[in-house]
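anyone else get weird line breaks when pasting these?? whatever heres mine. first is seq + tokens for prot A
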Amino acid sequence: MVRHHERGPYRRRRPGGHLVEHELHDRLDDLMRDPYPHYARARAAQGLVRVPELDAWLVARDADVREVLRRTADFSSAGALRPDVMPAPAALAVLGGGFGGRPVVVTSDGERHQRLRAPLVRALSPARVAAAVPYARERAAALVDGFVADGGVELMSAYATRLPGEVIGRIVGLDPADVPLVVHGGRRAEELLFRPLPEAGQIAAAEDVVAMQHVLDRCARDRYTHPREDLATEIVASVSEPGHPELPLEQRHEAVAHLQNLLIAGHLTTTALIGTTVLHLLGHRRQWELLRERPDLIPAAVEEAARYDGALQGFRRTTTRPVTLAGTELPAGADLFVAFGAANRDASCHPRPDTFDITRDTPARHLAFGFGAHACVGAQLAREQLRVTVGELTRRLPDLRLAAERPVTMRPTMIHRSPEELHLTW
């Protein structure tokens, strides 16, 4: 039995907390840009491995990840999105002028989680997702129309950040004119909480987040008094009670928190998956050529891309009582990073795990979209957009290639892993 009770000595820089060495930030960036060597060492180790850069125990084997996700009473999701960087007081003051800040489906447990998840499951039902696919195809074609004659494109900005925002915005019921601001605000929220920024940059990011929240608050108040057949109405109904002339303030905060969480997950995750999927298909040229010849492999290619290099590398969990996991004894309050990306390279489940192969026999048994009670409710919507994207690009730009003179750098994050930029040519 491996006994580990100590907490790690390192945290990212936090106001009033321990100051960490600059090299720890550099090591964290290195880990986030390429976590797979760290995962391999953790899978090979006895028990769990404590990773100072993450300030958490790394859960890296498929069986262990699934065990944590099954045992929701023992491993709480309350800190699933714990910030890597606590904003400065001036930025927090700006955020105080916005809305939200309430528990959401990703950070809830038990009955509350079930209550918050229910409207999302209804709103993202197979029928509703299928109804959104024609719009996704239409928008994908229009976006490709915008650069197909140019001979080259930076795909993340011209396509990957735009299609998912437009699709989820339509499902939620946002005014199309508000979608770019909401997409921008979501990305800025991620930067504020997960990337070191100077104080002025934090304040600017917080202002963008608050601007997004005011748009969502306006939407929530409108749906309370004028319900529609959209996801915003479903969410508002799930947190409110009828009988008030206007949506009460506390319920406005709850509605905005849920809308913000859904929109960020709905567009940032799919944006990242588009980037990594295209990157690896083009980086493994024979796979791209095979896909051009056999478009029937597109669904399998999407699953393999998600397995091989998932956008969501993992979530945090916290033990609610003393537990034993993988032979490691953990006290109550222990922080874990449950690494879906590591489990997806576990050779006990995926033969030749470090090989990108779109012809795998069982490509869908991965954890790229989570597992169990917290499995991603928008997984099918993401899959459909990825299939539309790969089909559009292989059909219209069969000679698509990575721009040799523009090497790809991955974003330093474990939440929405993707290329910083993806320059392509044809």
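and prot B, same format (seq, then tokens)
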Amino acid sequence: MEALPARARAYVACVTVPALLCLLPLVPGSPVPPPGGARFSWWAVALLAALYAGCEHLARSRPAAAPHPGGAFHPVLLAGAFLLPPPAAALVALPGALLLPVERRPYPARRLWRAGRLVLAVWAAGRVHLADGGGEAVADCDVPGALGTAGAAVLAFCLVLTLLDGGFPAPGALPRGRRISAPAAWWRLFLRSLAPITVHGLAGLMMALLWRSPYGPVAALLVLPPMGVSWWAFAQYHRERAAHQATIRALVQAVDIKDGYTRGHSERVGRASMMIARELGMDDERVEVLRFAGILHDVGKLGVPTRLLTKDGPLTPEERRVIELHPEYGHEMVRGISFLGEARAAVLHHHERLDGTGYPYGLSGGQIPESARVVAVADAFDAMTSNRSYSRARPVPVALEELRRCAGAHFDPRMVAALVRAIGRAGWHPAVAADDHRPAGGDTRPDAVPGPVAPAVGRPGARR
């Protein structure tokens, strides 16, 4: 665990030691007997442990197949919690958690962490199930009675997993870039986990009931193929999403290479768009779409001659008209990507203005899609706070004041106010995106923000 900070090492130890204590009753001669003096079959433990490890190995052998590592086959673990005493049920998770590979260093610490959290979660689920009399309900195949006790056990399983993940977040546990309080982060993680774990719990209960039925363990295994099919469909969705994200990254990299002065601009506009969307209370799915809108807003620059994007001198009216075509070029490039949703409208309309002086169609007011109004503010803000070939970066307070001044005429006041609040809370630390030099000629670039500090931004033909 030498590659982990001391605090993380202590946290892993605080999870591992209680997990070992949960398994202590299984040690021959242990002074701690199994809860309730329950008996169990070691054969059942070995079968479930092998089944869990095998299913997880199969999941990991498929690229991008398990979006939540270590959680593809919770039904097997929960079936163990419904069938076995808590220590024996916890042991089911141990071989797979310790032996299966992990993706990042330090490998031993991550294996211990994965094993400890699963052992504690299964043990807690088993204890709750046993205390509620769930063992008798499963043994008698009493479905109504088993459902109630299983629900309490699943809730305990989910609580333990999310409480532990809240102290040592798993990759992808929380939305990227989110800065929220620890209780709010835990509550969000708990709500995200509860529905899928409940489905796994129902499948685990079905396995347990079939195991105790006259048909035996072979019948219980029949639950796994439908779960495997649903897991495969879920994995296909994530593969498709990963492919779209790779496409988006490739397009953005192409724009950055073509227009070196704005390298990194797209990612920062995506980040600012995401901050505005969250401040407005949009759901996570829409926040992600608006992040994509910000990232892709300038993809149409791929259709603009490079000499115009990198020209240091003033642009002629004809050159500005060519640059003004980039929203339409961008829309043509992304309109076939259904995954982007309303981001496509933002790509097309992010240079429209509330007073109707924008482009490409001169829309005004409510005619401009909300997504485009979000990106317009994010784009203008980053343009002002980044060094360009024709202007120096301005301090964040100056840029925000300029946005406020232009709110109502060029920018949606709601979007401006949301960005001001978000930056007031989280701050803004952009990387410098261009070399620090300006042309000798005047600033006639169309992507500046309107106002006395940057007079060219208010002109038609913005080049952001």
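btw re prot B: Residues 6-234 form one domain. The chain has two domains: 6-234, 259-458.
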